[in-house]
Design goal:
heterodimer, A: 177 residues, mainly alpha, 3 strands, 51% helix, elongated, B: 221 residues, alpha+beta, Phenylalanyl-tRNA Synthetase, Chain B, domain 3, four-stranded antiparallel beta sheet, four-stranded mixed beta sheet, 8 helices, globular
Chain lengths: 177, 221
């Protein structure tokens, strides 16, 4: 309903053949509510974007919100649905990050124990991603001198050299060359 | 786009500012459309443009693509997409789509003019640009919603209320969606309209820079 319509008063205070001032107020109120919801959507989108960036490489966070359809001015109900779904995604993303943080903390403690006493964590392998660090390296509890070390109980933690170099990967792609 | 700004940036003629239907503008303050028209025809990009694409590829990394949505301009478009009912993870914003293509293809591949000019300007500024055949446009451009029964020329009917880019006669493209085939840049195009869609949070200076950059690249070709 156009907001510009004004009530026509013939006598007294009763409008005739025109929307009542209350209706006009409702329209203005609805628009204000829509603007407010759009503001909330903007804040939630910013928060979700930050969480998505923070989580990348550590864990996956849910970030999809169902599209309404073709681009148009959404009604209050549709905006509320988008806002609520975004709020749910933000909450789920936070939860996923907290869970991941707990896992990484416990993995770091495990790694500390393994470095202190490799023989108590035989054959255990912890990767850098397990403890929330970038790169491809691993810590691997292995025996010195293979079977002899196993029999003698000589265990150590071997640190891998990290990500394979591009040249080595190319050699794998072309073994005959 | 303000005349004073245009003079400051040395535009001659200055970029044209389109209008937004008043009830849409009331819902989306900051929404705007501006365009420039340049002589040009589609074709292979010259070596300097292709070199610039390669330079741009070298400067764009995966981590930047991931964190792109945190930057103000790409974020502003994502927010606007959400507000008009689009899912920016399904229908990507122009700059995010290009970043994704860069990761997928290993670089910004040259797709000729005017696509390369738009790629350079969009990636550098984040502003959403698109191109139309300027000679086929009837008058100025605007952003408006469709009336019942309206359709893109040569296309199927569009649902009433769909936001579109329109000239003075008909919708020529869905906003952030497909364009009508008759208005696309093709072999017969001699003059290209580069159109920027501005949303709340995208500064005017970025829109001007994007238009200038795309137009200058097109003219260099």
């Amino acid at each position: 309903m156009p907001t510009g319509l004004k009530p026509v008063y013939i006598s007294g205070n009763r409008p005739v053949h025109a929307p009542s001032p209350v209706v006009v107020d409702d329209v203005a109120g609805e628009r204000a509510a829509r603007l407010q919801l759009r503001g909330q959507i903007a804040r939630l989108e910013a928060e979700l974007a930050n969480l998505f960036g923070e989580a990348f490489g550590h864990t996956e966070v849910p970030h999809r919100v169902t599209a309404v359809g073709a681009p148009r001015v959404l009604g209050l109900g549709e905006l509320e649905r988008v806002r609520d779904e975004l709020a749910d995604r933000v909450a789920e993303a936070r939860e996923a990050l907290v869970e991941r943080s707990h896992v990484e903390t416990s993995n770091r403690e495990l790694l500390r124990d393994m470095l202190a006493a490799p023989e108590r964590h035989k054959w255990l392998k912890v990767s850098r991603s397990d403890v929330g660090e970038p790169g491809c390296g691993t810590w691997h509890s292995r025996p010195w001198l293979g079977p002899i070390g196993m029999l003698m109980g000589w265990w150590r933690v071997k640190v891998s050299s990290g990500c394979p170099l591009a040249g080595r990967l190319a050699a794998v792609d072309h073994p005959a060359a | 786009m303000g005349g004073a700004d245009s003079v400051r940036m040395g535009w001659d003629p200055p970029p044209r500012q389109g209008w937004v239907a008043p009830h849409i503008a009331a819902e989306f303050p900051g929404l705007g459309i501006a365009w420039v028209e340049v002589d040009g025809r589609p074709g292979k990009s010259p070596e300097p443009v292709r070199r610039r694409l390669r330079d741009l590829s070298d400067r764009t990394y995966g981590s930047q693509a991931i964190r792109m949505r945190e930057r103000p301009i790409p974020w502003a478009y994502r927010v606007f997409y959400r507000q008009i009912g689009l899912d920016p993870d399904r229908i990507r914003t122009p700059v995010e789509q290009l970043a994704l293509d860069r990761l997928h293809d290993g670089g910004f591949l040259s797709r000729g003019m005017p696509a390369d000019a738009l790629t350079i300007a969009i990636v550098e500024t984040g502003v959403a640009l698109r191109a139309f055949d300027a000679d086929r446009l009837a008058g100025g451009l605007c952003i408006r919603d469709t009336a019942p029964g309206e359709a893109l020329p040569g296309g199927q009917e569009i649902a009433a209320g769909t936001l579109t880019v329109a000239d003075e006669e008909t919708p020529i493209a869905i906003l952030f969606g497909p364009s009508a085939e008759t208005y696309r840049v093709d072999g017969g195009t001699r003059r290209i309209a580069v159109v920027a869609t501005q949303v709340k949070g995208v500064p005017q200076i970025a829109v001007e820079e994007a238009l200038w950059m795309a137009a200058a690249t097109l003219e260099s070709g």
